[in-house]
């Protein structure tokens, strides 16, 4: 591709990480955000010709200042960041258990989330762009007027849209209100990645083959299903494959899936794949992309932080 950008669409939070009910660290986070930081620390350092941009919103408080500065420090453009006046930046409390897996409690003002028109109006998508989006931000009814317009414009321009479902248990009650938005995201996406846990909440099945054949294929035919430390399942019209996950000693699993996404995007950039090529590549190329995702994820699981280290 002659010109590419990586564009993230998602929420920003401050993650406060606890072990044994004691705080260990407080770091900027968010699903797409974590991936974008890792891409800023890899592609952003390696390739001056690939701009990295985040479309998001924060409060106009001190925590928001920390988040925005952190983005700039990690090679991410803040030109499309909305600072909502009179609001507070979202907080996430992550409690690590004995296996270093996290249970979350969120403090978010979803009702007052907003993206300013002037911040997103100048984002013109192009064929070479890779757009990474997901989590509740991508289906929040309050933001849907903005996210639908952005995602549709990216799709129509021929960009690669990588959708990480990342559906939390806390939003089960919202399923009737957001299901249409989820399906619409499936239809706009080039690649969908979700966990067996995500689909268990949504559709009552955690069997990857069933998820693909019943719920996914009719909307998006490139699908990756992760299952914690169990094998990763890949489905395309021509391929059904599984990839083992290396068993490692983890420090924290926060950001593991987010950084799998970052590694996938990194691999797409490294192999210079277009949207059209993704629909026809063979199992060897997919295997290389999955391995790139696993490499990023592994690095993060061996750190207390949400992204690969500098």
Tell me what the structure shows.
It is a single chain. With about 300 residues, the protein is of the alpha/beta class. The chain contains 10 helices and 13 strands. Strands 5-4-1-8-9-10-11-12-13 form a 9-stranded mixed sheet, sandwiched between helices. β11 (about 225) and β12 (about 230-235) form a beta hairpin. α1 (about 30-45) packs parallel to α8 (about 255-270) and α8 packs across α10 (about 285-300). The longest helix is centred in the C-terminal third of the chain and has 19 residues, at about 285-300. The relative contact order is 0.14. The model has no long low-confidence stretch (mean pLDDT about 95).
Descriptive key words:
310 residues, alpha/beta, 4-stranded mixed sheet, 10 helices
Care to count the β-strands? Answer: 13
Q: Can you summarize the main beta sheet?
A: 9 strands, mixed
Mean pLDDT: 95
Helix-strand sequence: EEEHEHEEEHEHEHEHHEEEHHH
Name the poorly predicted regions.
none
Query: Percent helix among the residues?
Result: 25-40%
The radius of gyration over CA amounts to 18 Å
Helical segment count: 10
Multimeric state of these chains? single chain
């Amino acid at each position: 591709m002659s010109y590419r950008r990586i564009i993230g669409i998602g929420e920003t939070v401050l993650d406060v990480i606890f072990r044994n009910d004691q705080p260990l660290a407080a770091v900027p986070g968010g699903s797409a955000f974590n991936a974008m930081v890792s891409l800023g620390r890899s592609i952003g350092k390696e390739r001056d010709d690939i701009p990295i941009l985040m479309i998001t919103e924060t409060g106009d408080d001190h925590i928001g200042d920390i988040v925005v500065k952190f983005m700039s420090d990690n090679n991410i453009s803040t030109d499309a960041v909305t600072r909502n006046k009179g609001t507070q930046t979202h907080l996430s409390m992550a409690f690590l258990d004995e296996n270093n897996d996290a249970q979350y409690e969120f403090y978010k003002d979803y009702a007052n989330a907003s993206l300013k028109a002037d911040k997103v109006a100048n984002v013109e998508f192009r064929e070479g762009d890779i757009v990474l989006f997901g989590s509740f931000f991508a289906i929040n009814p309050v933001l849907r007027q903005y996210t639908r317009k952005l995602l549709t414009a990216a799709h129509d321009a021929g960009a690669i849209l990588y959708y990480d479902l990342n559906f939390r248990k806390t939003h089960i009650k919202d399923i009737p209100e957001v299901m249409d938005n989820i399906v619409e995201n499936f239809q706009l996406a080039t690649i969908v990645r979700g966990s067996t846990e995500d689909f268990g909440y949504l559709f009552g099945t955690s069997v990857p083959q069933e998820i693909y054949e019943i719920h996914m294929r009719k909307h998006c035919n490139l699908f990756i299903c992760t299952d914690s430390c169990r094998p990763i399942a890949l489905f395309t019209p021509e391929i059904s494959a599984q990839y083992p996950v290396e068993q490692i000693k983890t420090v924290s699993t926060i950001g593991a899936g987010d950084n799998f996404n970052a590694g996938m995007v990194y691999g797409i950039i490294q192999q210079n794949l277009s949207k059209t090529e993704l629909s026809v590549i063979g199992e060897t190329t997919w295997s290389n992309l999955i391995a790139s995702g696993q490499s990023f994820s592994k690095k993060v699981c061996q750190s207390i932080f949400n992204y690969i280290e500098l």
